[in-house]
Specification:
Elements (H helix, E strand, L loop, with lengths): L6 H10 L4 H13 L9 H12 L9 H11 L1 H17 L9 H12 L6 H9 L5 H13 L4 H9 L9 H12 L10 H14 L6 H4 L5 H14 L17 E4 L14 E4 L1 H13 L2 H8 L10
Antiparallel strand pairs: 1-2
Helix pairs in contact: 1-2, 1-3, 2-3, 3-4, 4-5, 5-6, 5-7, 6-8, 7-8, 7-10, 8-10, 9-10
The structure holds zinc ion.
């Protein structure tokens, strides 16, 4: 029987599961069932709510409004910081247009209302990915924070010294302009334009190549969280080692290293236990032919990858 008796136990459960969507949702459901008894300011409650909001692309988004409201009431500053993290995650993750991302868009609108400048670079990257309606919401948020829809004003704002995490402001503001532009002409949109948009939407489920150049480097912890979300979003198990099948803490590794052109697509990611992770560099040197062939085809690296 799972112990759901305290927020501390719930938080531990989430950590042990490798932030599996189902476990996070079960934990939030348990909090919700005892909403009168829990202290929303309890750091463990806050971490459970944050884990829920950071599980981008989880299948049942509706429940997230509960976490969003509770976190905002308990700790508004932490809520805003979490929304910035969510936008950064989205900017660097595969986007699935069919999901719509209603809660994430609500978070983006809140960032726009509060004019959170720290979110600008990630919002601009997201706008430039041109996956609607998420990108348009991000572009509108950039315009609201900057106070202008002028490309030059946006570039200027992104270039300011107080936003050191933004590089290539021109590329970022171009993306914002492109995302803002189609809304003016939706009625006159030609079928050719619609077709182009669909092609772009297919491309959007791939991670953006430019984001790493446009955003500040990620901490290792954030990177792990993002890669884990990508793996879970593809329906893969991150709570077991993808090589030896051991259940327990895992870290997410790349089959083909990023430095050699490996991507963050699910097919190139594998959850590994500590022992198998230590083997990774040697195995890579020896050649990862089977894994690389599978990764090249966009398939999941299989068991006994080594
Ligand atoms: Zn292992």
């Amino acid at each position: 029987m799972t112990d759901l008796s305290s927020p501390k136990a719930l938080r531990r459960l989430i950590d042990e599961s490798g932030h599996a969507f189902a476990v996070i949702e079960e934990a939030v459901g348990a909090l919700r069932a005892r909403i009168r008894d829990i202290d929303p300011h309890d750091p463990d409650v806050i971490e459970v709510l944050r884990a829920h909001l950071l599980a981008i692309g989880s299948p049942s988004d509706v429940m997230k409004y509960f976490s969003l409201e509770l976190l905002e009431r308990a700790d508004p500053a932490r809520a805003i910081a979490t929304y910035v993290e969510v936008v950064e995650l989205l900017a660097r993750s595969p986007i699935h247009p069919e999901r719509g991302y209603p809660v994430e868009r609500a978070m983006i609108r809140l960032l726009a209302d509060k004019k959170v400048t720290g979110a600008l670079p990630a919002l601009a990257v997201l706008a430039g990915r041109e996956v609607y309606p998420l990108s348009r919401t991000a572009a509108r948020a950039v315009a609201a924070i900057v106070g202008s829809t002028e490309k030059d004003a946006i570039t200027d704002r992104l270039r300011r010294a107080d936003l050191p995490e933004a590089t290539r402001p021109d590329a970022l503001s171009d993306g914002v302009s492109r995302a803002l532009w189609p809304q003016k002409r939706t009625s006159a949109q030609s079928s050719q334009e619609r077709r182009r948009k669909i092609t772009r939407e297919n491309a959007a489920s791939m991670p953006p190549d430019a984001s790493s150049a446009c955003l500040r480097p990620e901490s290792s912890k954030k990177r792990q969280a993002r890669l884990r979300a990508i793996l879970l979003g593809a329906g893969r198990d991150a709570a077991r080692c993808g090589n030896c099948d051991l259940a327990g803490p895992t870290r997410i590794g790349h089959v083909v290293p990023v430095g050699r052109g490996g991507s963050d697509r699910p097919g190139n990611l594998v959850a590994l236990c500590a022992a198998c992770l230590r083997l990774l560099p040697r195995r890579r040197r020896e050649g990862f032919d089977a894994g690389r062939r599978r990764a090249a085809k966009g398939e999941a690296p299989q068991m006994n990858l080594f």
